[in-house]
Design a protein that fits this description.
- The protein is an all-alpha fold and 224 residues long.
- The chain has a single domain, classed as Phosphate transport system protein phou homolog 2, domain 2 (Methane Monooxygenase Hydroxylase, Chain G, domain 1), CATH 1.20.58.220.
- Helix content is 83%, strand content 0%.
- It is built from ten helices and no strands.
- Helix 4 runs antiparallel to helix 5 and helix 8 packs antiparallel against helix 10.
- The two termini are 37 Å apart.
């Protein structure tokens, strides 16, 4: 018999959201590898990793759709249905951005000039640190419920969300530095490559921004 999301919600309102986030992270954690393949000029590896990203994003969507279809408005949980679906929606945007990175990198062979590599990896490292921070917050949701969303556990999660915001701000700062360097290389790279790299930077930023927005949605839920 098919185990439904309804069955999971009967045990924990956050279990399905954590299952979804696990798949989101399967998707996002492939992103640095995409750029390593680009840096190394390994088109076969880039293609293989892109397929892994696409597969993980599809799996995340499957869980998302099952949650939406199996969570009737009449289900009783200690968490409001709207709050659960809002967190799910924001988590979904993280994996969407990761998949879009793979799509852009497969549009054409992008040059990866030595002049931007150090700044780029500085930026990408911060993107990953930021999204991993939200993954840790997501992993605390069951403990948060057991603590009735108050006390030391709630304080711990709220502090983690504050740190998440600081991490995302640092990502923005590194992105701006990287973009400034990129734009100084317009004659060397050409307009099309500049546009595509700008899109890649934006999507990387969207991964971190999506993590922060999801964390803020958890903060809003806790403040009710």
């Amino acid at each position: 018999m098919r185990r439904t999301i309804f069955d999971l919600f009967a045990k924990s309102p956050f279990g399905p959201l954590q299952d979804h986030m696990a798949k989101v992270m399967d998707c996002v954690r492939q992103v640095p590898g995409l750029f390593r393949a680009l840096e190394e000029g390994d088109e076969e590896k880039l293609k293989t990793l892109s397929e892994m990203v696409e597969r993980a994003e599809f799996d995340a969507d499957e869980i998302k759709n099952q949650i939406r279809s199996d969570l009737p408005s009449t289900i009783f949980t200690p968490v409001d249905r709207t709050d659960l679906l809002d967190i799910l929606r924001f988590q979904d945007r993280i994996s969407d951005a990761a998949e879009d990175v793979a799509v852009v990198l497969n549009m054409k062979s992008l040059p990866f000039p030595e002049e931007i590599r150090a700044l780029f990896w500085n930026f990408m490292d911060q993107v990953m640190v930021t999204v991993e921070q939200y993954a840790r917050i997501n992993g605390e949701l069951d403990e948060l419920m057991e603590a009735s969303y108050v006390g030391a556990e709630a304080g711990k999660v709220m502090e983690m969300i504050t740190v998440l915001g600081e991490m995302e701000h640092e990502t923005d700062q590194r992105q701006q530095t990287l973009l400034k360097k990129l734009l100084s290389m317009e004659k060397q790279l050409g307009a099309l490559n500049i546009v595509l790299w700008m899109r890649v930077f934006q999507l990387g930023g969207d991964i971190a921004n999506g993590a922060e927005r999801t964390g803020n949605r958890v903060r809003l839920f806790l403040s009710k």
